Amino acid sequence: MVALGIDGTHYGLLTSSREKRERVDRVLHEVRAERFAMAPLARLSGGEQQRLMLAQALVGDPEILLLDEPLANLDLRSRDEVVDLVCEVAKRRGIAVMFVAHDINPLLGALDRVLYIANGKGVIGSVDDVVQSDVLTRLFGFPVHVVRTEDYVLVATAEHGGGCHA
Questions:
Q1: Could you tell me the pLDDT band of residue 20, with boundaries at 50, 70 and 90?
Q2: How far is CA 126 from the centre of its chain?
Q3: How far apart are alpha carbons 124 and 112 in whole angstroms?
Q4: In principle, which of 77, 100, 148, 155 could form an S-S bond with 68, CB 3.0–4.6 Å?
Q5: Residue 1, Cα to own-chain centre: how many angstroms?
Q6: 27 to each of 54, 59, 73, 80, 90, how far by Cα in Å?
Q7: DSSP-based three-state secondary structure for 75
Q8: Within 10 A of 115 (CB to CB), how many other CB atoms are there?
């Protein structure tokens, strides 16, 4: 699967080479995925699968990573591990990362800039400038609450469909 990051744009049979194997091994080591690299994908946890998908993206030596919902369906620990790993790899390689996410909370500590898009409009800026109750309320058109603590920011809404009463 990781080698598809090298050969995935070609038609026909994939070829194996020593240089390609070394590239794959190097990137597996970089994302700390050697121990499950040969395991069936269906038997891996979500976090382990994300490591392999990150390796696949990195094996082609990109200048920018576009990660679309990389934290979806991950448990809390795996989510934090993936964010930390992506930041570590991006810093070491000197590459930019763009996260696309519905839930910004797990990413807040890793972001330099935020682009929030809603209702055909967008707001871009630093986390501190954009992730504010008044800014997000104007953008979304309904109350959005930003709660800040010493080390954490929570973005939430009080909007709901009336709840479910059993």
A1: confident
A2: 18
A3: 11
A4: 100
A5: 19
A6: 9, 6, 24, 20, 13
A7: coil
A8: 12
**Per-residue confidence band for 154, with pLDDT thresholds at 50, 70 and 90:** confident
CA distance 19 to 13: 17
Q: What are the residue boundaries of the structural domains of the chain, listed by start?
A: 1-106, 112-166
State which H helix or E strand residue 148 sits in.
Answer: strand 144-148
Contact criterion met (CB below 8 Å) for 112 and 121:
no
Mean pLDDT of 107-123: 91
First to last CA, the chain: 46
CA-based Rg of the chain, rounded to a whole angstrom? 19
The Cα 77–Cα 33 span in angstroms is 16
**pTM for the full predicted model:** 0.79
A 10 A CB-CB count for 55 gives: 25
Query: Which fold is adopted by the domain 1-106?
Result: Rossmann fold (3.40.50)
Place of tokens 């800039």: 113
